[in-house]
Amino acid sequence: MPWNNQGGGGPWKPNPGGPWGQGGSSGGQNGPNLEEVLRNLQDRIGGFGGGSGFKWAPLLVLLALGVWALSGFYTVQPNEIGLNMIFGRYIGKTASGLNYNWPYPIGAVEKLRVTDRNTISVGFVLSNDPRGAGQTRVDRSEESLMLTGDENIADVKFVVIWQIDPQKPEDFAFNVRNPVLTVKAVAESAMREVVGRTEIQRILTAERKVIEPAVQDLMQKVLDDYKTGVKIIQVQLQSVDPPEQVIAAFRDVTAAQQDQDRLRNEAEAYANRVVPEARGQAAQISQQAQAYKEQTVAEAKGQAGRFSQVYEQYKKAPDVTRERLYLETMERVFGSMNKVIIDQSAGGQGVVPYLPLGALDTPSRPPAAPAQSSQQGGAR
Questions:
Q1: Which of 189, 221, 242 is the last residue of a domain?
Q2: What percent of the chain has pLDDT over 70?
């Protein structure tokens, strides 16, 4: 029979070669039993607790919770500020050092570099030279061409240096979707407003140092109104030129303006040198005149006082005073002159010889002192 060609059994006997290997489905010695496998696995798991079931399961859960809780520690670098969030809601900021927040998925931390300075270029971009020659500047006229207050066009290229405000980093993180584009748009808008209030000639010459702080202040005001958490450090003008078609004419105007300023400075320097000298000379003349006035007045007062004194003496002794005045006058007139004495008295012989002993004695003494006496005697 075909079902007995492997050595017996017949159709009602179990097949010695079942699906679990050798042996029949009744679980012979070589065939595994599924129930026994599950029972053995359960026994092994319970064996960890010495036959006490799942005794170590709570400890494993606590260990997993501890590892999860410790994962909430994080480090903030000196140039960073950490922003703590719980379920996506901002709860506070942390300084540099080791800090803690609820770990994921409950909490999250965002670190911002608040001391790093960022640069934004308006009117041009710097790109790497494919030939390896460094960076090349690519102009963007749609950003740099601006209308001035006198309806001219100026090509303004500038750089904005900014950083995250350390006092308000949460505004930077949560209030602005793209801070870089926002700062660039505000910078371009502020520069156009300031340039639109200024004449082109002043922009090209004297007002360049005034534009930078004006744009910086205006940018800071707008960004503060937007609550962006951005702090503007500096605005630097790279170049301010007229359009390329008329740049030569504007350069001539600028050169003429510089020559005018130079000549004005030279004239002011000459005036600063001459005017003080003239004022000094005028003050000297005025002081000399004042001194001469005071001297003349003093001499006049002295002579008036002397005359008053003489007059008082004259009233007391007119003859003696008159004689004294006569002698003093003659002494003053003839004291320094060469004299010839003539005796006209009775029996006189005409010219009277005399010897000026004073001149021989001391040159400093007035000469002809004896002659005065002789003269006085001859006159009498």
A1: 242
A2: 75
